[in-house]
């Protein structure tokens, strides 16, 4: 399989692959647990078809692009962000559709990490006489499918950690007041994040302090399960979470020491209770992540306080951060910092970010980045 640009790759390849990536991102929050994929059909250096995977169970990006291209697909080039599937899933194999349409060349952004497909889709195309290029724009295309790849490889979801803090690094005052650190525009971004997640995770301390609702307002493409880390089952039956559990799912993660009567009361109130075999926060969190993976949850947003975020970082399970830094100074030696836990002993061991992006949002600084492996 060729790893370089053959003569048949159009000179506008990079521009077209970027367009395919843009198309793929339109599926965010709609296609999971499938990956986001974008596709172009190019003939005589003109785009004659575009497509992206729009929703889970729906046509794949290649099928959408082929439909738009019609007969112009014969002898054309397909530019796709991810290796076409070669197995029967919820939809027929895309490799067969490309072959039947008469595509002569397929340029693939990156290989599919799914063992059912990895390298086999490209090989199926080559065996049918289709020219295949693999690897150009691999870094960006691999980043596009990172949550899907993590779920496939580890059986656990992609973990996004979010917090808002003052310029001096506090997530609340010494008295515990945290409303509001960030601007209304920043909070709107958080709601958009929530609307694309499979779950939103907080600790019981946050619920007891804020009586939070944890829904996306306005609603997004997904309805996230609200997960409360609550070892002793202290979640009040009068809380907003419990009172709305019939409309928006609530999962309470408890430890073995949880009071049986309180657990049953939560279940009668329409909450799901997941019980860990250990009350130790770190192994309990790892076990819960495995349970989420079994449910095919692909992306979860952790909005917990310092203890919960500390557990996530101490276990090395955070993949991506979303941080809002407000132009405020609260002071106070007892005011909590964003991330608790054990942390690291040497600055050389501090977790590093890659692909960092800063954006000003109504006076706040909004930082996104991925944890370097």
Give a written overview of the molecule.
This protein has 373 residues and is of the alpha/beta class. Helix content is 29%, strand content 23%. The chain has helices at residues 13-25, 61-69, 94-101, 120-127, 138-144, 146-154, 184-194, 204-210, 240-243, 260-268, 281-294, 306-314; strands at residues 38-43, 46-52, 77-82, 105-110, 131-134, 158-166, 199-203, 225-229, 250-254, 272-275, 299-302, 320-326, 353-361, 364-371. A nine-stranded mixed sheet has the order 10-9-8-7-11-6-12-14-13. Strands 2-1-3-4-5 form a five-stranded mixed sheet, sandwiched between helices. Helix 3 packs parallel to helix 4. Residues 1-8 have low confidence and may be disordered.
Summarize the structure.
The chain is an alpha/beta fold and 373 residues long. The chain has helices spanning 13-25, 61-69, 94-101, 120-127, 138-144, 146-154, 184-194, 204-210, 240-243, 260-268, 281-294, 306-314, and strands at residues 38-43, 46-52, 77-82, 105-110, 131-134, 158-166, 199-203, 225-229, 250-254, 272-275, 299-302, 320-326, 353-361, 364-371.
């Amino acid at each position: 399989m060729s790893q370089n640009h053959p003569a048949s790759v159009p000179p506008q390849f990079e521009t077209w692959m970027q367009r395919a990536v843009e198309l793929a991102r339109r599926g965010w929050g709609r296609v999971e647990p499938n990956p986001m994929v974008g596709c172009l059909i190019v003939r005589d250096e003109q785009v004659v078809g575009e497509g992206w995977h729009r929703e889970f169970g729906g046509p794949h990006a290649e099928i959408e692009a082929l439909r738009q291209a019609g007969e112009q697909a014969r002898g054309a080039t397909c530019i796709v962000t991810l290796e076409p599937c070669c197995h029967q899933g919820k939809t027929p194999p895309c490799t067969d559709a490309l072959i039947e349409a008469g595509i002569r060349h397929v340029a693939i952004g990156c290989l599919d990490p799914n063992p059912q497909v990895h390298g086999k889709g490209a090989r199926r195309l080559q065996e049918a006489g289709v020219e295949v290029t693999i690897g150009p724009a691999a870094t960006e295309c691999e980043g596009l499918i990172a949550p899907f790849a993590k779920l496939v490889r580890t059986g656990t979801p992609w973990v996004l950690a979010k917090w808002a803090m003052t310029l001096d690094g506090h997530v609340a005052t010494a008295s515990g007041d945290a409303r509001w650190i960030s601007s209304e525009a920043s909070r709107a971004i958080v709601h958009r994040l929530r609307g694309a997640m499979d779950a939103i995770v907080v600790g019981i301390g946050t619920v007891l302090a804020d009586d939070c609702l944890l829904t996306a307002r306005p609603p997004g493409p997904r309805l996230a399960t609200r997960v409360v880390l609550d070892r002793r089952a202290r979640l009040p039956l009068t809380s907003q979470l419990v009172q709305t559990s019939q409309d928006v799912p609530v999962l309470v993660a408890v430890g073995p020491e949880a009071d049986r009567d309180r657990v049953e009361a939560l279940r009668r109130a329409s909450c799901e209770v997941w019980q860990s075999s250990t009350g130790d926060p770190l192994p309990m969190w790892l076990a819960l992540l495995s349970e989420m993976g079994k449910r095919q949850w692909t992306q979860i947003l952790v909005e917990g306080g310092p203890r919960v975020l500390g557990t996530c970082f101490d276990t090395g399970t955070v993949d991506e951060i979303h941080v809002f830094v407000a132009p405020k100074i609260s002071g106070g030696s007892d005011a909590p910092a964003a991330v608790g836990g054990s942390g690291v002993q040497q600055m050389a061991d501090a977790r590093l970010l890659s692909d960092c992006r800063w954006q000003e949002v109504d006076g706040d600084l909004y930082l996104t980045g991925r944890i370097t492996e």
